[in-house]
Specification:
Shape: extended
CATH superfamily of the largest domain: Transferase(Phosphotransferase) domain 1
CATH class of the largest domain: Mainly Alpha
Helix content: 40-55%
Number of domains: 2
Mean pLDDT: 80
Strand content: 5-15%
CATH topology of the largest domain: Transferase(Phosphotransferase), domain 1
CATH architecture of the largest domain: Orthogonal Bundle
Number of helices: 17
Distance between the termini: 93 Å
Number of strands: 8
Bound molecules: adenosine-5'-triphosphate, magnesium ion
Radius of gyration: 28 Å
Largest sheet: 6 strands, antiparallel
Order of helices and strands: EEEEHHEEHHEEHHHHHHHHHHHHH
Length: 370
């Protein structure tokens, strides 16, 4: 176990604990040379001892490091000496799990959408790069703050936890290592019945389950035990939405129904379409500027009065993704024939003329000597 004062790879000094998960613990570290603070997620020693899991953990971290989005927790470094760990941005406002425990069931439609919209945009960006999260749940959404004081949801742990869990189960090491397998509350039906057929729509389902929880205040498929939860998920049997919730509206319920459809093909085909429908809900339209500010990454990076009220940039991003997706589907065009480069002029000047001159001078010198 890491303790304050421990130094990793000569670069990071441990300052204190940030939290514990099923397979890893997260500590606050300071970069010795830069003085910057970061979060370090280290695998528990008994898991890190399994080489395959350790490698997979670091590999998934490298994938997350490629994703660039203001609502995705950036992975900026790895440590491999002694511990196996990923260095991430430090996000200090708690998790969505805590926010739900304190406030869910009391949030209004616009607030729910300001939380959901950036998450959908972030997960949509990951999907665009072919990365499926597979373990979206409130504890994997950290809450930061923008410099304007708006909540800034940050998606963490792309692929990491689920990959480890399934590999542990496959290697039957879970019981040996005493690992608690995560909650099934946000698992999609296809994750329960056929693990091989998983694509980005599994994330759409989990996002629907998160939206449900923000509206209602408890999990959509909650039950007495894991078997009960899984049976409800596979049967599409979520608890009816009580109509006294300020976040409940016919439009949001329609979004939920589609996101939580049992068959993947009946769900939203993309996060962008899920988000677009959420934005059309009348109560969201009224607070659209605020929701817009929560999704418009440019606002955080470069806040200008125009971009703060402009919804088009988000639409433009969605249009860009669509165009890029279309372009990727088109058959590759035959590569342009490249004309061979004609070096003859160079050869004449730099090779044959000097050789000719040398021979000529040589012959003259030979003639003179006779
Ligand atoms: N980048 C971060 N910045 C600040 N705190 C973090 C960061 N990442 C994780 N944490 C804290 O560490 C806790 C444990 O995270 P971890 O991902 O190990 O477990 P989990 O997501 O809660 O559960 P599971 O193990 O099922 O994934 C989180 O709940 C959060 O409070
Ligand atoms: Mg996590």
């Amino acid at each position: 176990m890491l303790k304050p004062g421990d130094v990793l790879e000569g670069r990071y000094v441990v300052e204190g604990s940030l939290g514990e998960g099923a397979m890893a613990s997260v500590v606050r570290v300071r970069h010795r040379a830069l003085g910057s603070q970061h979060a370090l997620k280290v695998l528990n020693p008994e898991i890190a001892a399994i080489a395959q899991l350790r490698e997979r953990f670091l590999a998934e971290g490298r994938i997350q490091a490629q994703l660039r989005h203001p609502n995705i927790v950036p992975v900026t470094d790895v440590v491999t000496e002694g511990a196996a760990g990923l260095i991430m941005e430090l996000v200090e406002g708690g998790t969505l799990e805590e926010l739900i425990a304190n406030q869910a069931g009391r949030l209004d439609v616009a607030t729910i959408c300001t939380i959901m919209a950036p998450i959908l945009d972030a997960v949509g960006e990951a999907h665009h790069h072919g990365v499926v999260h597979r373990d979206l749940k409130p504890s994997n959404i950290l809450l930061g703050r923008t410099r304007h004081g708006h909540p800034r949801p940050m998606v963490a742990d792309f692929g990491i936890a689920k990959v480890l869990t399934s590999q542990l189960q496959a290697s039957r090491s879970a019981t040996k290592t005493g690992v608690r397998v995560g909650t099934p509350l946000y698992m999609s039906p296809e994750q329960i019945v056929n693990i091989t057929q998983i694509d980005h729509r599994t994330d759409i389902f989990a996002l629907g389950a998160i939206l449900y929880e923000l509206i209602v205040g408890h999990a959509a498929f909650d039950d007495d035990n894991e078997f009960g939860i899984m049976s409800r998920i596979v049967a599409g049997n979520y608890h009816p939405i009580p109509n006294n919730r300020p976040g409940a509206s016919p439009e949001l319920e329609r979004c939920l129904r589609r996101a939580l459809a049992t068959k993947p093909e009946e769900r939203y085909p993309s996060c962008d379409e899920f988000l677009a429908e959420l934005m059309r809900a009348p109560k969201v339209a009224a607070g659209r500027a605020e929701v817009q500010q929560s999704i418009n990454s440019e606002v955080w990076l470069d806040s200008t009065p125009e971009s703060a009220t402009d919804y088009t940039s988000q639409e433009a991003r969605a249009a860009r993704r669509k165009a890029e997706n279309e372009a990727m589907k088109r058959p590759a065009e035959a590569p342009e024939k490249i004309a061979p480069v004609d070096h003859s002029g160079f050869e004449l000047i730099f090779f044959w003329i000097p050789i000719g001159l040398i021979l000529f001078i040589g012959l003259l010198a030979l003639g003179a000597s006779r």
